[in-house]
């Protein structure tokens, strides 16, 4: 297949590019700085998001577009300026993808657009599936709602559209190494009260679900990209401690985190139980449905 990827140089994009190239697909990575990346036999870097760049002129007929572009949520404290950048980076990239679809001579078959479980808001008691259609009322819910609404416009061009609502992605990069640092220093423990849910997923299953969404014509609309067994924060911590053979004892108090991180502390202190009902009904088989084997694969 011929697949274009935005955000192809990030955490998920790098893993996706490596996997798809190894399977023999031809990949086109849309980037602001194509000259910084050497092309390979299977991977071509194409300029976009800068004035004068017309990626449609440098692309063949595409089978799929995967849109992963967006500013990192935890790169800095959530000032009003940072929040605006988080929102605008996703909207701008998705609008540019829509322009690309509109301007290409042949319409791509499918758009797989990143989203997040933040759509649902937070709760310690509710279970969220794709049947939950009412978004939460916090900042991340607003971001994901607008993000998905933009992506949905691809359907107007006859493009099958999927929004993968990513949970916390566990891999050698991303959040997990930071979570493990206190345990390696013998100072790990629950964050806040430890009761907040974490809907996690192994990086291999994120890549698997992206491929599954590309290939399965029945995949459409929102799909929860989370493992089927979410864990509370305290359970996650105990599992990390067990895998690393380190103690789980020293809590990180909520007031200190709120003081240090401000609104961004919600990423650590609040969560949601998200179940991948649609993926399972469509027949996706998780490589890592349970947390402890996933942690062992990454941390050991």
UniProtKB/TrEMBL annotation:
Residues 252-298 form the DUF1731 domain. Residues 3-217 form the NAD-dependent epimerase/dehydratase domain. SUPFAM superfamilies: NAD(P)-binding Rossmann-fold domains. Gene3D superfamilies: NAD(P)-binding Rossmann-like Domain (3.40.50.720). It comes from the Bacteria. Pfam families: DUF1731, Epimerase. Belongs to the NAD(P)-dependent epimerase/dehydratase family. SDR39U1 subfamily. This is Multidrug MFS transporter. It comes from Pontibacillus yanchengensis Y32.
């Amino acid at each position: 297949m011929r697949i274009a990827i935005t955000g192809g140089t990030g955490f998920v994009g790098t893993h996706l590019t490596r996997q798809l190239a190894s399977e023999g697909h031809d990949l086109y990575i849309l980037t602001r700085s194509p000259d910084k990346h050497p092309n390979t036999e299977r991977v071509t870097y194409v300029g976009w998001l800068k004035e004068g760049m017309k990626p449609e002129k440098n692309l063949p007929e595409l089978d799929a577009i995967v849109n992963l572009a967006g500013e990192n949520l935890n790169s800095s404290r959530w000032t009003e300026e940072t929040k605006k950048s988080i929102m605008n980076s996703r909207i701008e990239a998705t609008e540019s993808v829509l322009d690309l679809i509109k301007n290409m001579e042949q319409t791509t078959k499918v758009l797989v657009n990143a989203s997040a479980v933040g759509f649902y808001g937070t709760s310690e008691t509710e279970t969220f599936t794709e049947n939950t259609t009412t978004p939460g009322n916090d900042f991340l819910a607003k971001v994901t709602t607008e993000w998905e609404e933009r992506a949905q416009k691809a359907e107007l061009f006859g493009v099958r559209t999927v929004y993968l609502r990513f949970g916390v992605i566990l891999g050698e990069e991303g959040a997990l190494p930071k979570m493990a640092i206190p345990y390696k220093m013998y100072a790990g423990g629950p964050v806040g009260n430890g009761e907040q849910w974490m809907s996690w997923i192994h990086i291999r299953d994120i890549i698997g679900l992206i491929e599954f969404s590309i290939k399965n014509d029945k995949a459409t609309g929102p799909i929860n990209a989370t493992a089927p067994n979410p864990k509370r924060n305290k359970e996650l911590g105990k599992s990390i401690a067990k895998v690393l053979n380190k103690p789980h004892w020293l809590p990180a108090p909520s007031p200190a985190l709120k003081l240090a991180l401000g609104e961004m502390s919600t990423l650590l202190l609040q969560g949601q139980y998200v179940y991948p009902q649609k993926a399972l009904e469509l027949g996706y088989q998780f490589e890592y449905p349970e947390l402890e084997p996933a942690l062992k694969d990454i941390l050991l």
